[in-house]
Structures are given as C-alpha cells and as structure tokens.
Design goal:
Blueprint (H helix, E strand, L loop, with lengths): L9 E9 L2 E8 L2 E8 L5 E8 L3 E8 L5 E7 L10 E6 L3 H19 L11 E3 L6 E3 L15
Antiparallel strand pairs: 1-2, 1-7, 2-3, 3-4, 5-6, 6-7, 8-9
Amino acid sequence: MPALAEGERQIDQTIAAFSSYKGTVYLTDRRILFEYGEGTIHKKFHQLGVSLRDVTTVNAKHARLGGQELLITTRNTNNGFGTTQIAFRVAVIPEQWMVKINNLLIPISSKLSPTIVVEKEIVKVPCKYCGTLVDVFRNNMCSQCGAPTR
C-alpha cells in the first residue's frame, strides 16, 4: 500500500501489469498509482503515479484471449510513467475503473473550467400613446394601454 498524502483517500486497488512489470494499481481521490516490486530476497518497491488533474481520457480495451486493459491518456509526459499513453492490463473489468476515474474527473474539471456569465441588455422604448416603457423585443403591445408597439 502506497503512502498517501494528508487528506487523500484510497478509492480502489487491483492487481495489474504495466509494461513488463507486475504489481498493484491504486486509485485515490487525487491520483493513479502503480506499485511493483523487484527482487526476491531483498524486495525493493517502486511507485509510478499520475495526478488526476493530468488525466484527459480513460478507455477500456478488451483483447483476444481475455486480455483487459485500462487505457489512460494524460496531458504531458511529465508524470511517473514518462508517457502520455498509459496501458494497464488489469485483473478486473476495466469499465468499472473507467467509471470510477471519470466520476473523480468531473469535479476536477468543473473546478478548473471558467464560469461563463451571460449579460443581457433589455431595451425599453416609451409607448407613443401613453409613455409607458415597453420591451419591444418581447412585447408587441403596450402593457398599459394595449397599443401596438410596432
């Protein structure tokens, strides 16, 4: 189990392989980690990770002979994996992980996307009969005296 940052929580884990390494892939609310060990007597563990903020797409791939892959695309190669295309061969149905990761990405992307404010200008013209201000784009009759505005 990898060390988590303060406030970070683990969502899921599964046995997986990345490149020629076999290990465990972990999903937290902040990142995707892959931990694998080398050596038999003096086992040394290594961790590779990518922040969820850098993940752009998550897909599942089913190969022949029961192979299942979780395909993750990132914004840049400046992550623990050194590539923008990360492919994990996983021991579970990859769509389950795909849904979990995408659910975590939605709040991140909504925080990062700018808020769009639409300003609307309403033009009101005085009625030529009674002087009441009338929105000529919405109303074709004066609300006060009933005269046509066009």
